[in-house]
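Example S7 (structure tokens).
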């Protein structure tokens, strides 16, 4: 009786409400979210999954043997959890790359000294005997600045650092990589990146940018103290000369797989919510947090939803991308492959910010996304993750970018950047830094948000291209967006 009365009251209320209010997303049953959060934290095993991936499989350069093992492992895990339609989705990377032994580097003048260097990702091998030349510091890598310095660059080893890269980043990453390519085109013999990480713990940059092709000149990654030494010598007019050498294995045109698995929704006509992380990593560490914790979170969420017997309205599609580090190659391949059906994708959630306890989501303050999170605010607040954030360059440095550009509602997890950046792309990105409790909370935040979005009756509004541009302009991200479009990234 009570139920019938409530239904009647509800339908009367619906008739009286304006259309916008009728479409406002309603919260998933609070009991379901609490149960799911508990199931993920206590029984989700995110920490164990990350240990298996980081310690058991190791670094996962896109297209490498370890990457293929990680794909097979992830497929087996999803199948063991009883997910549906578990499959690989192939795409082709122009070149795979792998270091073949350690790099060496020496200062030859004004005195002899060993330097701390690793090969940059997707750098060609040095010629026999290494790359030898006088060092020239380039203060700005934007294409016009590189052209202006052409006379000094030809035949030299060019040193750039974070200060040199900053104006390029501000101009957009496509422009930045145009400038870096230009350094080779102007006849430099080699390129040294000094990225502010201490000697012996260099930070991978990946110097080809969104193409997955090998760079046009040998490029190394130099330790902080060595970078500062070279800059001091240059400032005193002491003309440093350096030689460096390494060998890399490069294979052209390799098939790489994304991994896809689903928990079917109750309403097959309601589309799907996509939750994603990237399976590839750099090789210096083991990618335990970039993005092992993201991958582990997805498995823990799948496990917990299955264990709790919960079925959301929409299908939840779990996707593990490859090629993120070489330029979001796997997520761009996904959007290309599924473009015609992207209208069925109700929302995208990305976790790629390490395993720290998150504070909330980057929503770019799109109204629909913020309203959807407000509907589950009690659960997110209880997990310490009730914040929403607007613009951040990171939006275009993660697999969120092609979905944001396509106007799909998008959520990017915001976790503490300080501890993450201390290990990001460095040898220190290993399992010992992962905190089990924080990772459990992180997975719970992603899981609760994913489930709630999948269960919401109303769909979030999608943005037409003009609206995407207008919103990114308001957030100060339009330059980056236009630059990436101009470079064919979207
Ligand atoms: Zn990442």
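Recovered sequence:
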């Amino acid at each position: 009786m009570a139920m019938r009365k409530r239904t009647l009251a509800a339908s009367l209320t619906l008739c009286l409400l304006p259309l916008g209010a009728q479409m406002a997303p309603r919260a998933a049953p609070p009991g379901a979210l609490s149960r799911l959060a508990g199931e993920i934290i206590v029984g989700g095993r995110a920490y164990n999954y990350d240990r298996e991936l980081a310690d058991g499989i190791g670094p996962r350069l896109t297209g490498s043997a370890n990457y293929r093992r990680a794909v097979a492992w992830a497929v087996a895990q999803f199948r063991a959890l009883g997910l549906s339609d578990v499959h690989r989705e192939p795409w082709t990377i122009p070149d795979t790359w792998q270091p073949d032994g350690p790099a060496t580097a020496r200062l030859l003048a004004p005195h002899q000294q060993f330097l701390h260097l690793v090969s940059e990702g997707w750098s060609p091998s040095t010629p026999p005997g290494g790359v030898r030349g006088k060092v020239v510091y380039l203060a700005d890598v934007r294409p016009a600045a590189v052209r202006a310095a052409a006379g000094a660059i030809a035949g030299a080893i060019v040193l750039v650092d974070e200060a040199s890269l900053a104006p390029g980043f501000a101009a957009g990453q496509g422009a930045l990589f145009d400038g870096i390519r230009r350094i080779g085109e102007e006849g430099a013999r080699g390129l040294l990146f000094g990225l502010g990480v201490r000697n012996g713990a260099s930070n991978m940059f990946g110097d080809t940018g969104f193409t997955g092709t090998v760079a046009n000149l040998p490029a190394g990654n130099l330790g902080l103290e060595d970078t500062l030494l070279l800059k001091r010598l240059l400032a005193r007019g002491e003309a440093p000369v350096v030689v460096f050498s390494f060998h890399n294995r490069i294979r052209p045109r390799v098939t790489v797989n994304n991994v896809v698995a689903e928990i079917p929704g109750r309403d097959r006509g309601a589309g799907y919510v996509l939750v994603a992380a990237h399976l590839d990593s750099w090789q210096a560490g083991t990618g335990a947090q970039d993005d092992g914790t993201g991958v582990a979170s997805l498995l823990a969420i799948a496990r917990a939803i299955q264990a709790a017997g919960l079925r959301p309205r929409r299908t939840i599609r779990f996707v593990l991308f490859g090629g993120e580090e070489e330029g979001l190659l796997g997520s761009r391949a996904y959007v290309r492959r599924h473009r015609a059906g992207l209208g069925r994708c109700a929302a995208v959630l990305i976790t790629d910010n390490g395993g720290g306890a998150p504070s909330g989501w980057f929503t770019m303050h799109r109204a629909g996304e913020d309203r959807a999170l407000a509907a589950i605010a009690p659960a997110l607040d209880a997990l310490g993750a009730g914040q929403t954030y607007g613009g951040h360059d990171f939006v275009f440095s993660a697999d969120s970018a092609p979905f944001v550009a396509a106007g799909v509602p998008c959520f990017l997890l915001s976790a503490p950047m300080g501890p993450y950046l201390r290990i990001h792309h460095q040898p220190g990105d290993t399992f010992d830094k992962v905190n089990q409790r924080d990772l459990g909370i992180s997975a719970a935040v992603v899981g609760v948000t994913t489930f709630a979005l999948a269960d919401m009756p109303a769909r979030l509004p999608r943005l037409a291209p003009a609206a995407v541009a207008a919103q990114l302009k308001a957030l100060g991200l339009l330059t980056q967006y236009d630059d990436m479009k101009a470079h064919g990234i979207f």
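Notes on this example. Residues 1-27 have pLDDT under 50 and may be disordered.
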